[in-house]
Amino acid sequence: MEFTVEQIAQMLNGEVRGDKTLKVNQLAKIEEGTEGCISFLSNLKYEHFLYTTKASAVIVDKTFEPKKDNYPTLILVDNAYSAFTTLLQEYQKFLQNQKKGIEQPTYISSSATIGEDVYIGAFSYIADGCKIGNHVKIYPNVCILDATVIGDYTTIYPGVKIYSNTIIGSNCTIHANAVIGADGFGFAPQADGTYKTIPQLGNVILENHVSIGANATIDRATMGSTVIREGVKIDNLVQIAHNVEIGNNTVIAAQTGVAGSAKVGSNCMIGGQVGVNGHINVPNKTIVLGQSGVTKTFHKEGLILAGKPATENLDYLKAQALLRKLPSTEKRLRELENKFKSNE
């Protein structure tokens, strides 16, 4: 794939400072750029690489002014990081669109519906009643069970397991070995100390533009649906339990667990190794810092939460400051106690 700098600038709604006719065919980090590469500069900590890079062109913010004269052709955009992300997405689409057809051996039920320009990798299994949209990419060793629906332009990477009746929207990405729709953790304790399995009869719904990381697990609902709303991004090794609802455009980092029937609002940011208790609500625009434990419902939007149990970050920081002073405070108390005893 080869484009001129001018063509890329038009794609990104940018303007060129330098040679518009230069051709680029690779993407690279600015410090590793060579001739024919295009890169970007958004963090000024890396500005010094702009004057040494061999890249043919670099995407920068319109507000950026070079401090030296020896720099490559620039593409000026409103937001260099966002623009380069757009370029990466277009390049990824180009690469993925090269894969089409159905490899063998593969099992596809005669009652399954397969759309146009689909790629299905070898050793994949598509069960009865499944509906696969147009331009879907299903990589090798994927298992899709009965009556699952997958929307257009969705990509499913190797080893993914999708249980029956799952509904997946368009333009979703599910990374390797994720499991969508396994039973929720439902067991009823009995008088004799044993547990009776509660059937999990619901399903999982992933709306459009959802991304699920490698080895993430999303459990089906006991009844109804576990719902991951549009635009949600879930990192690797995340556990979403039964009947959870995650709001639009929320992002969840690795090793986080959300317990059953919790509701997480829209545009939240949840850090790594966070635990969210079951049957609670996390309001819209909440930020939960890494390794926090959210144990109760919060009602105000836009809070920053931290700690175990989680509280507002300012209160958490104050408590931590006091905690660091405990050894010296204890020492002073002992000294005062001894002084008091000696004066008795």
From TrEMBL:
One of its GO terms (molecular function) is UDP-3-O-[(3R)-3-hydroxyacyl]-glucosamine N-acyltransferase activity. InterPro entries: Hexapep, LpxD, Trimer_LpxA-like_sf, UDP_GlcNAc_AcTrfase_non-rep. Pfam families: Hexapep, LpxD. It is an enzyme of class 2 (transferase). The active site is at 242 (proton acceptor). Residues 22-89 form the UDP-3-O-[3-hydroxymyristoyl] glucosamine N-acyltransferase non-repeat region domain. Signal peptide: none annotated. The keyword Transferase applies. Its EC number is 2.3.1.191. Homotrimer. PANTHER family: UDP-3-O-ACYLGLUCOSAMINE N-ACYLTRANSFERASE, UDP-3-O-ACYLGLUCOSAMINE N-ACYLTRANSFERASE 1, MITOCHONDRIAL-RELATED. Belongs to the transferase hexapeptide repeat family. LpxD subfamily. Catalyzes the N-acylation of UDP-3-O-acylglucosamine using 3-hydroxyacyl-ACP as the acyl donor. Is involved in the biosynthesis of lipid A, a phosphorylated glycolipid that anchors the lipopolysaccharide to the outer membrane of the cell. This is UDP-3-O-acylglucosamine N-acyltransferase. It comes from Arcicella rigui. The gene is lpxD.
